[in-house]
Amino acid sequence: MVMNYIFLMQFTDEQEAVFAASGDIKINAVAGSGKTTVLVEFARRQRPGTKILYIAFNRSVRLSAQQRFAEQKLINVDIQTAHSLAFRRIAIPANYTIAKGYKIPDIVKMLDLRPIGRDPHSAYLIAGHILKFAAFFCNSAKSKIRDLDYRETVTDAAAAKTVGRWYDAIEKGTRLFLAKMDRKEVDATHDFYLKKYQLANPVLNYDLIMFDEGQDASPVMLDVFLAQRARKVIVGDRFQQIYGWRRAINALTQIDFTEHSLTASFRFNRHIAALAMECLRWKELLGETVDIRISGLGTNNKIRTRATLARTNLALLKRAIDTVQHDRSIKSVYFEGNISSYTYASDGASIYDVLNLYLDKRDRIRDPLIGAMTSFEDLEEFAEKSEDMELRMLIDIVAAYGKQIPALLKKITGMHVDDDKREKADMIFSTLHRCKGMEYDAVTMAEDFITGERIRKMVAKEGDTPLDRTKLSEEINVAYVAITRSRNFLDFPDAMFPGADKSLFAKKSLLHGFPKAKGSGKYAASASKHERVGNQGLPWTVQHDDELRRLYLSETPQKDLAEYFKRKPGAIRARLKKLGLIEE
How many angstroms separate the first and last alpha carbons of the chain? Predict the structure, then answer.
């Protein structure tokens, strides 16, 4: 007989305080604190017949929540996303056709935009900002475009100058674009019908509404939520706000509800918790107060899933390329969101189009925007003026790897497993924004995360131009999210936590295993690429450092390490000292 696990759980005092609470409340739940379990139990303890709405962050969270609530036979809980609510109320009755997504050339053609002045790309630049302005308005709580100033959202100096010069054309184009969707002359975006939903002032006929991921709340849906007469519960982790650049609101710091905290994480142990707290204390360098203490109660001691996490696409692809080229133990990989999502910009430009421009193979360029550029440098300037971060990322990758890209991506794609085999992949790769809500047994962090030392230096050098402390604080959140994806096993850059005892975050089962010769108990370098080339005198790669660290922490003798890496014992000792693994 399978027993209902939730009835067997012993809840913490913090969780019981949530269950006993009355009125509107906000719950600050640290990573791994079991917020979904708490919401399920909270719903279960309501009086029979209570009509409950749970607003999930996205479709995948909605599907997972539907399963969790169904297991408890809570048929009185309706689980929706903001868009599913809006689609049912607005898109279906209006018979909207939903757009797959508009690209910059689509807007140029739709609105018949022409170049202004001497800049041949002005029409494309204006179109790009029209798309962003439309999204900004649709996701805001404002009812009129005139109540917003899009210029306030532009941070890059070159982009700000461009927007300031053509602001009237951008605003006029935004109004026309929205009007065309409203008149059904063109397909509607998901953002558009969600905005129409908010403007319709919907009344949600529920007794209790639970709003998830409140730290990254869409202003438009938050406005709908707060307007309801039902009892309201909003939950999230205020230190996991990582979508501020999309104008998301950290509702947990702005809504005046009675606050409850869940500070015990069941995902990771006390060592990871201490590391997460040290990371959050970097906020004190920016003048913020960190008034929470995380306790780690996780007991996981098995490695089933391994992930490499990076802040940016560029750093992630560099790690992936280094891994598939040098780590022979990795036979299969998986990219959260699928590998193709890392090689396209949001407007549809492909990394191959950017590469063909870089190689001056213009006849192979398919994207009209890329094809309109006169040179690779011209594209770089366009990316700056448009403040297109994803296009900049493709440019950086092409500049770093050039003509090697097709072969490298072909190798990675050939090793990529399907979604249903995700957890069986030898390594999962993801940026932080794509693995939101995920957890992995073992996590390796790339080198592109913020560090406390870097923040100290930036604060010390702050002059007449003030630091963007909000942006820096969110960078700390990004690092915190990366650390707390781990279920006890973590490898982080030395620069992040100098002097940290890395043996506290690893164990032998974390390693891919040291190669052995067939029929022998002896370690054998023949199982690795290192056999083909003597490495003495060559620089250490990031992958080699990681491999050395893993093998050393698994108590592999230094003489065997020297044989494996094809370096002298003295070189191995020197590198171990450099990595802080042995004393000077």
Answer: 58
The residue behind tokens 């131009």 is 465
DSSP state of 266: S
Following DSSP, what letter does each residue of 307-368 receive, concatenated? Answer: EEEESSHHHHHHHHHHHHHH-TT---EEETT-GGGGSB-TTS-BHHHHHHHHTT-GGG---H
In the chain, % helix, strand, coil (3-state, to 5) comes to: 50, 10, 35
List, run by run, the mean pLDDT of 10-residue segments along the chain (584 residues).
49 96 97 94 96 92 91 95 96 95 94 92 95 96 96 89 95 98 97 97 98 94 97 96 84 94 95 96 95 92 93 88 87 89 74 94 93 94 88 88 91 92 93 89 94 92 83 95 95 91 69 35 34 55 69 73 81 81 70
35: which 2 tokens?
């917020």
Q: Please name which of 316, 266, 318 lies closest in space to residue 296, comparing C-alpha atoms.
A: 266
Question: In the structure encoding, which two tokens stand for residue 272, read together?
Answer: 């990871």
DSSP codes joined into one string, 464-519: SS---HHHHHHHHHHHHHHHTTEEEEEE--TTTSTT--GGGG--GGGS----B-TT
500 phi and psi angles, rounded to 5 deg:
-65, 145
Pairwise CA distance, residues 368 & 121, whole Å? 12
Q: How many helices (H) and strands (E) does the chain have?
A: 25, 13
Starting at the earlier edge strand, list the strands of the sheet with 486-491: 333-335, 427-431, 306-310, 440-445, 486-491
- Hey, what are 111's tokens? 């609105």
- What is the spatial distance between Cα 470 and Cα 472, in angstroms, rounded to a whole number? 5
Position 411: which residue type? K
| Three-state SS at 443 | strand
Consecutive H or E run containing 86: helix 82-86
Per DSSP, helices labelled H in 367-491 are 368-371, 376-386, 389-401, 405-415, 452-460, 469-483
| Whether the model pTM is above 0.85 | no
CA distances from 441 to 33, 61, 76, 307, 500 (A): 16, 20, 34, 8, 20
Phi-psi region of 402 (alpha: psi -120 to 50; beta: other; left: phi over 0): left
Rounded Cα distance, 413 and 476, in Å:
32
Structure tokens at 48: 């029979």
Q: Tell me how far apart the alpha carbons of residues 44 and 40 are, in angstroms, rounded to a whole number.
A: 6
> Among all chains, which residue has been given the structure tokens 């201490």?
274
Give the model's pLDDT for residue 119.
Answer: 87
CA distances from 573 to 66, 484, 538, 559 (A): 54, 32, 15, 10
User: Tokens 């189009």 sit at which residue?
Assistant: 353
Answer whether 551's CB lies under 8 Å from 561's CB. Answer: yes
Distance between CA atoms of residues 210 and 213, nearest Å: 10
Using CA atoms, how far apart are residues 399 and 376, in angstroms rounded to an integer? 10
d(CA 76, CA 427): 40
Residue 458 to residue 36: CA distance in whole angstroms: 38
Q: How far apart, in whole angstroms, are the C-alpha atoms of residue 170 and residue 148?
A: 13
Closest C-alpha among 348, 429, 336, 446 to residue 391? 348
Of residues 189, 155, 35, the one with CA closest to residue 465 = 155
Largest CA distance in the chain: 76
Residue 2: what pLDDT? 36
Q: Give all strands (DSSP E) within 484-566, no chain letters.
A: 486-491
